[in-house]
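Run log, item B.
One chain of 306 residues. Sequence copied directly from the ordering sheet:
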Amino acid sequence: MRLLNQAHGQGTERIRREYPDVDVVEVPIEGDVDPSVEGDALLALTLASNLDQLVPRVRWVHSFSTGVDGLPDAAFSAEVLTCSRGAGAVPISEFVLAAMLAFEKKMPEVWIHDVPEHWNFADLGGLCGRSLGIVGLGGIGEAVAHRARAFGMEISAFRRRPLPSPIPDVRMVSTVEELVAGADHIVIAAPYTPRTHRMFDAGVFKAMRPGAHLVNIARGGLVDQDALHAALDDGTVATATLDTVDPEPLPAGHWMYTHPKVRLSPHVSWSSPEGGRKIFELFLENLGRYLRGEPLEGVVDKEERY
């Protein structure tokens, strides 16, 4: 088997160490590729600019990223397309819980740097008994739900397909509007596809419980940001914790940088000491499956684009 690899250096070394019989050929991530280079599979980096040249030369394309919305159309013409689905579930879910706790415990506002007006008094909230609505119940949504259960939250979820919840005590609802109407905290963990583009529009914000906390760790394109701006200004959304926005990065002077109700981070919720290792291990597992003729994990539905 010949693998065309865009994860150079240590990535190449590890693949060769784990699978010495695989012919690993490093290919560039931008610019033209030698027309004579062909293979069976491609380990692709999402931001590579030359995937349109490489995809037709292989049968299987594996994207290092979890989301595939950033891949060019050429990637979806591959016979088999897989991604690193689930690799970031633990760190992202921890980030979500940290964001919800920060909202309830009023951090960092609660920290003091001088003598306060009142000592031993604060009006803080908590997660126990609060309602959580999760949009998308894949790997990340499930990981959020598991951790939220430990805090005693009441959890509801919405997913595109009418499937039962894989987690006890998670109530499934049939519409996003129903979900947001009863939620104190709303977590967007759905894939970004043509179907979900601006899913959170003015209508959804109108249905939302006033004073809700919105957390987006999925993709910025899921939210109509003009409608979000209006919902923040009128108090429908008390705080928006946004790890993903549209576009990325936001241009200088964008209103989200300075809005007092926005907590903005630069798409880092996935980050953890184990993040890169987990992503690579998922690929190595899939490579082993490919060599053994077994079904691959993380197969992308090329029609639905996730």
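Observations after the first pass:
- The mean pLDDT is 96.
- The two ends are 27 Å apart (CA to CA).
Flagged for discussion on Thursday.
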